[in-house]
Amino acid sequence: MAKLFDVQAVFSHLSEILAYLPVTLELAVISMLIAVILGLILAVIKINHVPVLTAAVNVFVSVIRGTPIIVQLYITYFGIPMVLKYISTRNGTEFQSGNVPGIFCAIVALSVNESAYIAEIFRGALQSVGTGQIEAANALGMTYFQALRRIILPETLTVALPGLGNSFIGLIKGTSLAFTCAVVEITAQGKIIGGRTYRYFEVYVSLALIYWVVTIVVEQLVKLLERKNEIPENAALVTERVCEAKPGQRI
Amino acid sequence: MIEITNLKKKFRDNIVLDGINMKIQKGDVVGIIGPSGTGKSTLLRCINQLEQPEQGKIQMDGKEIDLSRKNKKEILELRKNTGMVFQKFNLFEKKTALENVMEGLLVVQKKSREDAKKAAQEQLERVGMAAWANHYPRHLSGGQQQRVAIARALAMKPSLLLLDEPTSALDPELVGEVLETIKKVAEEGFTMLLVSHEMNFIRHVSNRVIFLDGGKIVEDGTPRQVFEHPVNQRTVEFFTKMNLMNQPEYVI
Ligand SMILES: Nc1ncnc2c1ncn2[C@@H]1O[C@H](COP(=O)(O)OP(=O)(O)OP(=O)(O)O)[C@@H](O)[C@H]1O
Ligand SMILES: [Mg+2]
Predict the structure, then answer these.
(1) How far is CA A47 from each of CA A24, A123, A182, rounded to the nearest angstrom?
(2) Global confidence as pTM
(3) Who's near A32: CB < 8 A, 6+ residues apart?
């Protein structure tokens, strides 16, 4: 009788699964970048109470939070080709709906989904920046966007960093649903191997190990970033950043 | 000369400024005093449009600006020509003392890094903070932070400097160094509006004192006139409360 749990099988397919780790990371990193930018825009709209747009953002966040990500993925996967087809027929051009790569749909769905959560993280962080500093920037004669870029955002990012780290970890795990868009990343590859060898359990254990290790690495990276971002405790150690800038360099 | 005309500001139905008119000569150091909540801060904040009044004009450097209108270009112009020192310093927390002073020079005045740095260092020297240039605000005492904040405002070479209770958030032993700095700046000929509860200092440093009450200027004159011969009943009561009618002159 075959072994009930084949420890070796957990590791023997590792390299085959790891070959798809770049796909997982690509999905996660690209979606995260888009989500951060989108989330920031949404948050800025919200805290400035921009008329009409704020209401739209609220509805958007509510819809995203109120529906499962897997449904959102399916909707994007079937929806994007439909939208493109509609546009192309209106413009009188031919369009092959099979031409939309699944990974594109997956990235759209994942980043849009994540942006709703990241918007909330940014909103809290933006609000945590004291009005005092903003007023000081205004009093110097800075425009809102100058103050945002130079004063508000650096502080906001520091406050938001742990939350963004958690979001990113969630997103990495979320990429395991990308199979809905016919993308083969590590989980999909695991399923394929499982189907071939019938060692489903072992394959899933090795998938769990991979996700776990990736998460630990990301956690450490975030901690590193946080430490780099901290104001040095020992004032004497502050190097003259300003001096190092090249002469004539402008901001 | 700077002229403020008919400045009116209310918060809901609380009329805080009820038609303030004042002319400020170049080099004037105007001390603004008055009971708590009479709108001293609001007056300063309306002048650089951190608060928007319902009515009022300011004439400065030959240009007239309607303070009640929200014209972004005019607001920026106005703010470039006025400097503000806040009660709670409001330094940029993620920037060193030097970077705090450089910030406006770089971003608003578009100076090169070299020039901005040189100018910022000069300003830090002026307030006696050159040795602390690379320190972050949170490693500085309140008095030191306020001196950096003063340097930050001065670096922009404002036509008018607004100081809103610059020492009232400080521990008593730190008040002296900041007052010393302000006195030095005043002597250098900067035009300033100074709100403070430090009556002796106001009396000492300003050449003109304004008493604000009920949204109006009820007393306006030299420190001697206002402190020794107040004409308004409210002013007399205020000074009595502050125990200022008994000046050291009468003490043995
Ligand atoms: N943002 C605001 N919203 C509503 N009311 C305000 C606001 N700011 C100030 N006020 C009110 O306006 C009045 C004047 O306030 P202000 O801060 O100008 O007084 P002040 O003379 O500076 O007092 P203090 O000596 O205590 O600093 C007060 O009654 C205050 O409650
Ligand atoms: Mg005040």
Answers:
(1) 33, 7, 38
(2) 0.87
(3) A111, A114, A167, A168, A171
Task: Specify the 3-state DSSP secondary structure of A5.
Answer: coil
**Distance from the first to the final alpha carbon of chain B:** 43
Confidence of residue A236 (pLDDT cuts 50, 70, 90): low
Instruction: Give DSSP secondary structure letters for A28-61.
Output: HHHHHHHHHHHHHHHHHHHHTT-TTHHHHHHHHH
- For residue A241, the chain B residues in CB contact (below 8 A) are 99
Q: Do B93 and A139 touch (CB under 8 A)?
A: no
Best of B11, B165, B217 to mutate for ligand 1, by most ligand atoms within 8 A of CB? B11
Tell me whether A237 touches chain B (CB under 8 Å).
no
Count Cβ atoms within 10 A of the Cβ of residue A234 and give its class: 0-12 exposed, 13-18 middle, 19 or more buried. exposed
Q: Could you tell me the two tokens for B110?
A: 């578009």
Give residue B165 CA to ligand 2 midpoint distance, Å: 7
Q: How far apart are CA A120 and CA A84, in angstroms?
A: 31
B207 Cβ neighbours under 8 A, 6+ residues apart? B28, B29, B30, B222, B223
CATH (one of 1.10.3720.10, 3.30.70.1400, 3.30.470.20, 3.40.367.20) for A20-244: 1.10.3720.10
Tokens of residue A208, six digits: 């769990």
- The tens place of each residue's pLDDT in chain B, 252 residues long, gives 899 999 999 999 999 999 999 999 999 999 999 999 999 999 999 999 999 999 999 999 889 999 999 889 999 999 999 999 999 999 999 999 999 999 999 999 999 999 999 999 999 999 999 999 999 999 999 999 999 999 999 999 999 999 999 999 999 899 999 999 999 999 999 999 999 998 989 998 999 999 999 999 999 999 999 999 999 998 998 988 887 555 555 444
Domain boundaries, chain A: 20-244
Start-to-end Cα distance in chain A: 71
Q: Which among A211, A202, A203, A222 has a CA at the least distance from the CA of A177?
A: A211
